[in-house]
């Protein structure tokens, strides 16, 4: 194999056969293909995509690059969820313990922040002591004792994806349908789960903002899951505005704890309950969506999910006291309130602007391995359709210093569109369900 020749062919829009895909990516894992050669190939894929057979071959080599989790001894059904990434999306933190309360085993493998979006692992690591680097055996121990576990890819699971993940983030090739699909599904199919729910974001803050592209991604991943014997459903959910009010690692953990306590923003609660119901359906633990959603709401409001979250935090080495004392989470030294400068109706909140601003503030990575400030971010105090007057609070900036806070406050004001009209038409929170039987508009 000559890597440059395969790169040239893909750069020109050509296709590779399955053995070539396997040799090229296997060679990268073995050190025979360099980072700069893989970067060039990923950019070619970004522009030209992958054909169906290429996609299947890449998924296969990514899964086979490591071990798979054996859940055959788990006495309860297993299921997981994965989001394609958004701004303020802390659903997983609430959903994993909630689904466990419904009688599911949830071995949730998550990722770090990519580009302008936050990552579940970074959020969890804002909890003092919380370990996301569990071994495969320790992961199974926590799953059996608590019912859910939230960790990064172990050294054994899909190591090829772990290396590509950081490289995609550093080379601007995150927003590629085939690379998104194979990255997500290689991890999830290696978990040994029975059911999977995918949260595919659509709108300005999503990696694939257009609805047609999001639907194609959802259908691709559902087909992948079903091909490997995992019952898979996908929901298209809104990312034309941030989810909830908190944006930033520790701030989002605080908001997730509020939701686990039966409070928190309405959109976060609704999306979590709907995804919990889907997980119950694909795993067969509830007979209908209405019964599953009712059971999820009861578990959330009854405090069981919050207690299970605390148990999971403790089992993974974290300070479970943050559940009752969220002030133990990292706190930014500067908090600046930002006010509206004119009267009108909040007609839009640009999620991508806020996501990139958090990265600029140090809350995300500009290069592979960058340390991040877990305390910085935003807390929004307005929602779409809300009327504001000059001087009304639109949000808070949590920053490392006053200069950074002032810049972020300007970005916040720029991101919140205020007009004099009263017509606001956001995307529905959940617009489509994609399953093995087709696409359903909700």
Characterise this structure.
This protein is an alpha+beta fold and 442 residues long. It contains 16 helices and 14 strands. Strands 1-4-5-13-14 form a 5-stranded mixed β-sheet, with helices on both faces. A 4-stranded antiparallel β-sheet has the order 6-9-11-7, sandwiched between helices. Strand 4, helix 10 (211-227) and strand 5 (231-238) form a beta-alpha-beta unit. Helix 1 runs parallel beside helix 3 (35-48), helix 4 (52-64) runs parallel beside helix 9 (177-189) and helix 5 crosses helix 12. The longest helix is centred in the middle third of the chain and has 18 residues, at 266-283. The chain starts with a helix and ends with a strand. The model has no long low-confidence stretch (mean pLDDT 92).
Q: For the CA atoms, what is the radius of gyration?
A: 21 Å
Largest sheet: 5 strands, mixed
Strands ordered across the widest β-sheet: 1-4-5-13-14
Binned strand content = 15-25%
- Low-confidence segments, given as residue ranges, are none
Instruction: Assign the structural class, choosing from mainly alpha, mainly beta, alpha/beta, alpha+beta, or little secondary structure.
Output: alpha+beta
**Can you give the helix content as a percent range?**
40-55%
Q: Encode the helix/strand succession as letters.
A: HHHHEHEHHEHHEHEEHHHHEEHEEEHEEE
Average pLDDT taken over every residue: 92
The number of distinct β-strands equals: 14
Distance between the termini: 48 Å
The helix count comes to: 16
């Amino acid at each position: 194999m000559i890597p440059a020749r395969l790169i040239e062919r893909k750069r020109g829009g050509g296709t590779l056969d399955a053995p070539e895909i396997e040799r090229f990516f296997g060679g990268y894992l073995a050190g025979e293909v360099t980072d700069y050669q893989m970067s060039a190939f990923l950019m070619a894929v970004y522009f030209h995509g992958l054909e169906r057979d290429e996609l299947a071959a890449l998924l296969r080599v990514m899964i086979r690059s490591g071990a798979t989790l054996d859940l055959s001894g788990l006495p309860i059904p297993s299921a997981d969820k994965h989001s394609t990434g958004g701004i303020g999306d802390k659903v997983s933190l609430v959903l994993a313990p909630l689904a466990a309360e419904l009688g599911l085993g949830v071995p949730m493998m998550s990722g770090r922040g990519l580009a302008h979006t936050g990552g579940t692992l970074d959020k969890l690591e804002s909890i003092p002591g919380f370990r996301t680097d569990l071994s495969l055996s320790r992961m199974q121990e926590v799953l059996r004792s608590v019912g859910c576990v939230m960790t990064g890819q172990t050294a054994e699971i899909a190591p090829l994806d772990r290396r590509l993940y950081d490289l995609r983030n550093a080379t601007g090739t995150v927003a590629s349908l085939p690379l998104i699909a194979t990255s997500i599904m290689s991890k999830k199919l290696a978990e040994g789960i029975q059911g999977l729910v995918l949260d595919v974001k659509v709108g300005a803050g999503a990696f694939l903002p257009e609805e047609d592209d999001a639907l194609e991604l959802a259908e691709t991943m559902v087909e992948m899951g079903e091909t490997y014997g995992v019952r898979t459903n996908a929901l298209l959910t809104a990312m034309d505005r941030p989810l909830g009010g908190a944006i930033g690692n520790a701030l989002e953990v605080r908001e997730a704890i509020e939701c686990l306590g039966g409070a928190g923003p309405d959109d976060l609660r609704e999306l979590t309950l709907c995804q919990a119901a889907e997980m119950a359906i694909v795993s067969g633990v509830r007979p209908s969506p209405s019964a599953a959603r009712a059971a999820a709401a009861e578990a959330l409001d009854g405090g069981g999910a919050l207690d299970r979250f605390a148990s999971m935090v403790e089992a993974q080495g974290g300070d479970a006291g943050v559940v009752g004392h969220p002030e133990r989470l990292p706190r930014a030294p500067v908090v600046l309130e930002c006010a509206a400068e004119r009267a009108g109706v909040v007609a839009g909140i640009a999620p991508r602007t806020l996501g990139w601003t958090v990265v600029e503030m140090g809350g995300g990575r500009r290069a592979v391995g960058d340390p991040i400030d877990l305390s910085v971010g935003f807390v929004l105090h307005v929602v779409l359709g809300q009327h504001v007057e000059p001087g009304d609070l639109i949000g808070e900036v949590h920053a490392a210093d006053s200069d950074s806070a002032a810049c972020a406050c300007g970005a916040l004001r720029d991101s919140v569109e205020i007009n004099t009209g009263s017509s606001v038409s956001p995307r529905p929170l959940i617009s489509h369900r994609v399953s093995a039987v087709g696409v359903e508009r909700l």
